[in-house]
Write a structure and sequence with these properties.
The chain is of the alpha+beta class. The chain has helices at 4-9, 18-29, 74-89, 104-112; strands spanning 34-40, 46-55, 58-65, 94-100, 116-123, 126-134. The protein contains four helices and six strands; from the N terminus they run ααβββαβαββ. A six-stranded mixed beta sheet has the order 1-2-3-4-6-5, covered by helices on one side.
Length: 137
């Protein structure tokens, strides 16, 4: 979570203490409005995660990919697989992602994963791309 690239691309770029992260994580891991999926490599080692925050009939996805696994299109595969699994596991209709306009690699990964660009908006005083995917009927 404190990887330099992760912090730069976050809407809250400040470093996170272990104590604060543990407190936050324990509050959301049991929250029925959050779903976590962990991506594993072929040796069952974690290489990334996708988190979905449910808001009514929609959800917002955020992802993290281990530094050693970036730049080889695994991000789009993580997004695609996690989103499919999330739709299989829930009745949610749409998943949204908000990506800082300076984070071109994430925007490309979401588009490769099937997300559709919708608009640009301001989040936390920073410009962001809004992309979305709908459940397939």
């Amino acid at each position: 979570i404190n990887d330099d690239t992760v912090r730069v691309n976050s809407f809250h770029p400040e470093k996170i203490s272990l104590a604060n992260h543990k407190k936050w994580f324990s509050s959301v891991i049991t929250d029925k409005n959050h779903r976590y999926y962990i991506a594993l490599d072929m040796f069952d080692r974690p290489i990334g995660q996708a988190r979905f925050k449910i808001r009514g009939r929609d959800a917002v996805i955020s992802i993290l990919l281990d530094n050693n696994h970036r730049g080889i299109n695994l991000g789009s595969e993580l997004i695609r697989c996690a989103t499919k699994r999330f739709f299989d596991d829930t009745q949610i209709e749409k998943v949204h992602a908000y990506i800082k306009t300076t984070n071109n690699s994430s925007l490309k990964a979401f588009i490769r994963a099937g997300y559709i660009p919708k608009r640009t908006l301001k989040i936390e005083d920073q410009m962001a791309h809004h992309v979305m995917v709908s459940r397939c009927v």
